[in-house]
Structure formats: C-alpha cells, structure tokens
Automatic annotation (TrEMBL):
Keywords: Transferase. CDD domains: NAT_SF. Signal peptide: none annotated. GO terms for molecular function: N-acetyltransferase activity. This is GCN5-related N-acetyltransferase. Residues 19-167 form the N-acetyltransferase domain. It comes from the Bacteria.
Length: 169
C-alpha cells in the first residue's frame, strides 16, 4: 500500500453507512477484544435508530470515505444535548486509515460542531485499553469522569465515562 490514500470526509448519511459502520465495529472489536454478535447487533440497531431520527440542526455524522466506501465514522447525537450533553458515538477507522490523521480530523469536526451549537458539554463511553482513541479524546479536552467494570458492550471491560466542557454555562 502506498503512503497516500485518497479519502474524503463526508458530512451526513451516505448509502451503506449503517452496514459499514456496524461492520467496522464488529470486525475490529471482535479481533482485538473478543466482542461478538451482541456488540455488532447493538451497533447496527442503535446507529439505525439514530439515523432514522437524525436532525442536522442538532446531530452530526462525519464519514471517512475511500472510493465511495465508508472507512471511518464519528457521530454527535444531540437529542439530549441540553439536559445530558451531546453524545459522541461510533468513532472508528478501518486499518488503512489509522495513523494518518483521519481520526483527528473526525474528532475535531465533532467537537467543533458541539461548540458551534453551544452545547454545554459532550460525553462518550469508552473502555480502558483503547489507547489511540483515548489520546485523541484527551487532546481535544475529554476527561475520564468515572469508570467501573461493566458489560454494556456484551463483554466485561473497565468502562470509562468521559466528558468535555464545550462552553461555560
């Protein structure tokens, strides 16, 4: 593979996004963390529900696309942004895009979106051991607020809840 990979960052839904985001999550988390059917089905169900109620005024979805194929994603679910915060979800990249700055571009777009919307805070759930993602989260200002052992993804991990203050309230 050459060092240059032509990709674009698309804002909004593109055909195939639900299946591809689910596939990227299912394959990566199975190979690296042993997650199974429960997790992939959860991603597919929840991203489908999100996109079915998507409202560009409050929600954001950015997709890294190579040759018309989704190779990465990040979402801001703003349905409860004023009461609970904007929920950063489904941040994933395919192997060919990792380490190329694409993840940083995606997370910056998501955080900028929250700040432009003047959301008080953004939050995400992750788990201990996702060091590359954690580094990007910390670089934009997310901090671990609490953690505990849990099984929300179908496998027991040390779950971490992180928050970012987007504006002073």
């Amino acid at each position: 593979m050459n060092n240059e990979l032509d990709y674009s960052i698309e804002n909004g839904y593109v055909p195939g996004a639900i299946g591809r985001i689910s596939e990227l999550h299912g394959v990566y988390y199975h190979a690296n963390w042993g997650f199974g059917l429960f997790f992939e089905a959860k991603v597919a169900t929840e991203i489908s529900a999100f996109l079915s109620r998507y409202d560009a005024a409050r929600d954001g979805i950015w997709l890294a696309v190579v040759d018309g194929r989704v190779e990465g994603s990040i979402v801001i679910d703003g349905i409860h942004a004023s009461s609970e915060g904007a929920h950063l979800r489904w941040f994933i990249l395919s192997d060919p895009l990792r380490g190329r700055g694409v993840g940083r571009q995606l997370i910056n777009r998501a955080v900028d979106f929250c700040r432009r919307r003047r959301y008080p805070k953004a939050y995400l759930w992750t788990f201990e051991g996702l060091d590359a993602a954690k580094h990007l989260y910390e670089d934009v200002g997310f901090r671990v607020v609490r953690q505990h052992r849990g099984v929300q993804w179908g496998t027991e991990v040390n779950e971490q809840y992180c928050e970012l203050t987007c504006r002073r309230v």
